[in-house]
Amino acid sequence: MEPSCGFTTYSITVTYCIWGFTSSGTSGQQKLIVLVISGNFSVGFGMQHTVVIFLLAFSSVTQALDNGLMRTPPMGWLAWERYRCDIDCDNDPKNCISEVLFRDMADRLAEDGWRELGYVYINIDDCWASKKRDAQGRLQADPKRFPGGIAKLARYVHDRGLKLGIYGDLGTYTCAGYPGTTLDKIEIDAQTFADWEVDMLKLDGCYSNSSDQEQGYPRMSKALNATGRPIGFSCSWPAYQGGLPPKINYTLLGEICNLWRNYGDIEDSWDSILSIVDWFTENQDVLQPAAGPGRWNDPDMLVIGDFGLSMEQSRSQMALWAIMAAPLFMSNDLRTLSSGAQAILQNKAVISINQDPLGIQGKRLRKESSGIEVFMRPLSNNASALVFFSRRTDMPYRYPTSLKALNYAPGSYNVYDVFMQKPMPTLKDTTGFVVSINPSGVVMWYVAPAEWQERPKFFQANRKSDPFIV
Ligand SMILES: *[C@@H]1O[C@H](CO)[C@@H](O)[C@H](O)[C@H]1NC(C)=O
Ligand SMILES: *[C@@H]1O[C@H](CO)[C@@H](O)[C@H](O)[C@H]1NC(C)=O
Ligand SMILES: *[C@@H]1O[C@H](CO)[C@@H](O)[C@H](O)[C@H]1NC(C)=O
Ligand SMILES: *[C@@H]1O[C@H](CO)[C@@H](O)[C@H](O)[C@H]1NC(C)=O
């Protein structure tokens, strides 16, 4: 790890270097932090003291929900944004919320190359349930739209090497008015989902207040654990409480949820993407440390392949979601997806950046008055991802910079252009370069020290035979 060195003047003058070493335990639950501060402290009239201070601390901030799941951001498909609460199966049989829709999407995930890339969750959202619980007080699927029931759908999904996610709501009703999970129903609903062999639960927060949520989300986490079935847990809690401390305790969320929605629902529009990116970026100093293996901020679904985004904007959503270490849940029609949208969603380099095992969320480094923003995410093997993002609306903008200007350490770097899908010339940190960024588009790079030994798979696959290489 590079030491970060600085110089501060108070009443004493201190030149200092701080090294932070972190070593994760096997479970990733505990982090040993060793801080070594050494330097020359010159106090008052020229006295020089050389001081070395060791600080040892066990940090508890990195606790993650201990169900072993989602060590990298979960990937898959989620119904809500595209299909909402369309229950009109008589007139819209292919798109209504029914077992047909989920079987169709499971077939596509399994047969069109998605599963192998990591898109394994097939997730139901609101409007799946019958308006009435059964005689034992259990949730049940709408009998007309899910005649086989959820357990049978789970088997269908598992037979194809996929996982099934379901939706509930901590409150009197779900957002669309179906039966909710009040505090007294938490255990029975967790057990029902486990009995059906469901693999993930998104627990929404309509029709509950902050004290119900404070009790209910930790209690559901416990109840899921008590079933003995590993069930990924997505919590909408922060989105209902403004997403920020002091109302939201991200340490606690990381201990009880695998992912959480911090902010409002995504819509099929570029404005919606921008408002989400803005909110997550403005609050990145709070949100970024909350993320890590097993615990992720969720800026909501990918709307790539729907109607609202251009190809440039689609690449931007994919790139920024990868930088943010966001869950990648597509909400689109995989049966009719365009080849352009498919190529973006199946880009191996951007997926491997999203799925980097260190699980460090990236941040915005620069916000230029020209409308260019630069994002960076640290990756394993001393590599990193850079995104140059243009908020301009006129024409491709030529942005001059250097790796040194973007805080890179001295040295030479190999650069791979993620969407051009080709290696670029090796760059010294001091070499100036210009990237041309299209309006509402991105240029995305994978950057690695030039002395690296192992190239990532997407580099090795850079041959004619690879279908993703143009
Ligand atoms: C339940 O929690 C315990 C302790 O945190 C953990 O070891 C176990 O794997 C969890 N089980 C499930 C099914 O999540
Ligand atoms: C929250 O709602 C519950 C009913 O679900 C009610 O009993 C409780 O008094 C409410 N608390 C507050 C602070 O409004
Ligand atoms: C946040 O939650 C953690 C873990 O449960 C707890 O130790 C800490 O005291 C909480 N922080 C605040 C400010 O309540
Ligand atoms: C990363 O860089 C540090 C020096 O900054 C070096 O000690 C370490 O071996 C590098 N790690 C890898 C995996 O290349």
Automatic annotation (TrEMBL):
<dbReference type="GO" id="GO:0016020">
    <property type="term" value="C:membrane"/>
</dbReference>
<dbReference type="InterPro" id="IPR000111">
    <property type="entry name" value="Glyco_hydro_27/36_CS"/>
</dbReference>
<dbReference type="InterPro" id="IPR035373">
    <property type="entry name" value="Melibiase/NAGA_C"/>
</dbReference>
<dbReference type="InterPro" id="IPR013785">
    <property type="entry name" value="Aldolase_TIM"/>
</dbReference>
<dbReference type="GO" id="GO:0004557">
    <property type="term" value="F:alpha-galactosidase activity"/>
</dbReference>
<dbReference type="Pfam" id="PF16499">
    <property type="entry name" value="Melibiase_2"/>
</dbReference>
<dbReference type="GO" id="GO:0016139">
    <property type="term" value="P:glycoside catabolic process"/>
</dbReference>
<dbReference type="InterPro" id="IPR002241">
    <property type="entry name" value="Glyco_hydro_27"/>
</dbReference>
<keyword id="KW-0326">Glycosidase</keyword>
<keyword id="KW-0458">Lysosome</keyword>
<dbReference type="InterPro" id="IPR017853">
    <property type="entry name" value="GH"/>
</dbReference>
<keyword id="KW-0443">Lipid metabolism</keyword>
<keyword id="KW-1015">Disulfide bond</keyword>
<comment type="similarity">
    <text>Belongs to the glycosyl hydrolase 27 family.</text>
</comment>
<dbReference type="Pfam" id="PF17450">
    <property type="entry name" value="Melibiase_2_C"/>
</dbReference>
<comment type="subunit">
    <text>Homodimer.</text>
</comment>
<dbReference type="InterPro" id="IPR013780">
    <property type="entry name" value="Glyco_hydro_b"/>
</dbReference>
<keyword id="KW-0325">Glycoprotein</keyword>
<dbReference type="GO" id="GO:0009311">
    <property type="term" value="P:oligosaccharide metabolic process"/>
</dbReference>
<keyword id="KW-0378">Hydrolase</keyword>
<dbReference type="GO" id="GO:0019377">
    <property type="term" value="P:glycolipid catabolic process"/>
</dbReference>
<protein>
    <recommendedName>
        <fullName>Alpha-galactosidase</fullName>
        <ecNumber>3.2.1.-</ecNumber>
    </recommendedName>
</protein>
<feature type="domain" description="Alpha galactosidase A C-terminal">
    <location>
        <begin position="359"/>
        <end position="441"/>
    </location>
</feature>
<dbReference type="GO" id="GO:0005764">
    <property type="term" value="C:lysosome"/>
</dbReference>
